[in-house]
Amino acid sequence: MYIGNLIEDQIVDFSFNTHSAAGAPITLAGTPVVKVYKANSTTTETDAGVTLSVDFDGVTGLHHVRIDTSAGAFYQGGYDYSAVLVSGTVEGVSVAGTALATFSIENRSTGLAAALSACPAAGTVGEALVAALANAKNKIAISGTTLTLYKADGSTPLYVWTLNSPTEPTSRTPA
Questions:
Q1: CA-to-CA distance for 47 and 50, rounded, in angstroms?
Q2: What distance, in Å, lies between the first and last C-alpha atoms of the chain?
Q3: 7-56, pLDDT tens digit by residue?
Q4: Is 63 exposed, middle or buried (CB count within 10 Å of its CB: 0-12, 13-18, 19+)?
Q5: Total tally of structural domains belonging to the chain
Q6: Where is the domain boundary, 105, 120, 155?
């Protein structure tokens, strides 16, 4: 499961399930551990900032992982990461090696950035937005012609604009 391209120092939350051979939800046993691997390295992994909650909220077979990417220098922009169950058992059978989720930190260009970078004229709104995107650490979302820049919490809009074009904007107005 790909979670997305995150900003540095963001919290990652996801859940996964375990089932018995008969298909019923079952507890993950055997001292389970989740580690995060960086890029394609087999020598660089960590459990720093990783919290695994087995039977989350008392629900058998529902497990939750929280990764705090501000938990050290390991989590850096420009890389892909994989969360992997490196120990644990289900019905006495090892589930070590189970890939749970992948994510990246500031390692994908957005369609908006690509579109805005095509705005050649100096001083255009596109050029201003490209500069803002290049320096922004906050979440940015575009839907059609609506561009939203979020506060550091990632959920509260800071600025919302309406662009006159989703691919070649030349003007923007506050929404």
A1: 5
A2: 34
A3: 888 899 999 999 999 999 999 999 999 999 999 888 889 999 999 999 99
A4: buried
A5: 2
A6: 105
pLDDT digits (tens, 9 = 90+) for 58-96: 999 999 999 999 988 899 988 999 999 999 999 999 999
The tokens describing 56, both together, are: 């989350």
Q: What is the per-residue pLDDT for 155?
A: 79
pLDDT at 57 > cutoff 90: yes
C-beta separation of 35 from 48 below 8 A: no
Tell me which residue of 96, 94, 100 sits closest to 36, measured CA to CA: 100
E strand residue ranges, the chain? 2-6, 11-17, 29-38, 45-46, 50-53, 62-68, 79-90, 93-94, 98-105, 140-143, 146-150, 157-163, 172-174
Domain limits for position 170 = 111-174
82: which strand partners?
Answer: 37, 102
Q: What is the CATH number of the domain that holds 11?
A: 2.60.40
Q: Are 90 and 104 in contact (CB under 8 A)?
A: no
CA distance linking residue 62 with residue 57, whole number of Å: 8
CA proximity to 132, closest of 154, 107, 150: 150
Q: Counting Cβ atoms within 10 Å, is residue 104 exposed (0-12), middle (13-18) or buried (19+)?
A: middle
